[in-house]
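Appendix B. Extra example for self-study. Work through it before the problem class; the solution is given directly after the inputs so you can check yourself.
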Amino acid sequence: AQKITQTQPGMFVQEKEAVTLDCTYDTSDQSYGLFWYKQPSSGEMIFLIYQGSYDEQNATEGRYSLNFQKARKSANLVISASQLGDSAMYFCAMREGPHNQGGKLIFGQGTELSVKP
Amino acid sequence: DGGITQSPKYLFRKEGQNVTLSCEQNLNHDAMYWYRQDPGQGLRLIYYSQIVNDFQKGDIAEGYSVSREKKESFPLTVTSAQKNPTAFYLCASSGRQGRGETQYFGPGTRLLVL
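Solution. Structure tokens for the complete assembly:
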């Protein structure tokens, strides 16, 4: 069965430093998608970055990059130059099946990131 | 602005009462989803719909019902059969173009039982 594991319940990082949030996944599908979302205390889920299973290069979106290691089934999120506004819960998620057929997301338990001034 | 709206922001339910959560999107997305989030947990899928007049159960559909009469709207009813409805409910939608059909979320509704 598909599963997402985030082993870090909480993380601290100093402002302006980089931080890596871990995510491992388990699937028997060849085609899948991996997503990271940010959830601030207001509750909304904000899309950050996407990586397709067939993408050869790691995804990047501004200060966010995804360290995709397919053989190890890991999809870690790297946030560079942390800012106080980055303090939030971060969720890793996986979409089941090919990307042109929609499909539900499976979420990890989340990592709470705190950025210290 | 294009986006997803959910209402109300807070909802209180009495014992034995059915309540309906609204979700509307103007992104022209085909697919819509309802998730439930309990404190300190990730999201779990309740129902999803990939096209008008069609929907499928997710992992925790018992005690919930949905309809999809219009592309823009996907309301969720929490019935009296749902014995533990207190949670944060998030609606999402996705389109077929780009970014692996990324799901975009509304602001959520917090449901509390009186």
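Self-check: The longest strand of chain B covers residues 43-51. If your reasoning did not lead you there, revisit section 3.
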